[in-house]
Fold this protein.
Amino acid sequence: MQGSISAAYTWDVPYGKLLTRIQYIYRGPLQSRVYNNPLYDHTPAYNLWNFYASYKPDHMHWLFAVTCSNLSNFAGVNSRYTDPYGSGQTVEQYVPPRQIFGTVSYSF
């Protein structure tokens, strides 16, 4: 089971508008293969929080934004793959660590 929910609000602030958004993502536990070997195939559940904010000045073409993904810096496994052709190699894809991005844009 997996799902996400987000809430956003636009604030009237001096000289412009401020948009804030928070997002919650849940991904439940899963088995990576049909064979269901508990040593290799169990991928645990995780919860993630993401945040976004942008400021758009009135009567200007500029936009300033900041995004933070994986706000709580959760170190989890996103997926797992075990080679089915006899080598027994298992590869894990991890949830990216906390990342913060800033953006300045100009529209014309």
The mean pLDDT is 91. DSSP finds no helices and nine strands in the chain. The first strand starts at residue 2 and ends at 13.
